[in-house]
Amino acid sequence: MPTDLNPYGGVFGGWLMAQMALGAGSLASRVGKGKAVVVHATDFTFPGAMDVGDELSVYCDVTATGNTSLTIIAEGVGRERNGEGTTTVSRGTFKFVLLDEDDRPRSVRSEND
Which value, to the nearest 10 degrees, does the dihedral of the CA atoms of residues 35, 40, 31, 22 take? Predict the structure, then answer.
């Protein structure tokens, strides 16, 4: 949307990062079967550009599993509004920590694994 543009008319990188964090967080919660919070985000690149109205898809993969954490790489792919052309527009790495009911770190592996 127009409110998500930078001063040069491109989609703001911060908006892309937020969408990537939402996608990665969804995966972290599914894999971890519960609450997961971002504790670290790195390696952001923006190799392509999006126009207003383009569709963004975020693809995520777990690349590392720690005792209480998951590292997830996210990639944003923009599809042109009135066509099928796609462009990779963003990439980044997120680390999530899984939390228990008291918001304390908990093991990635459940007792039933």
Answer: 70
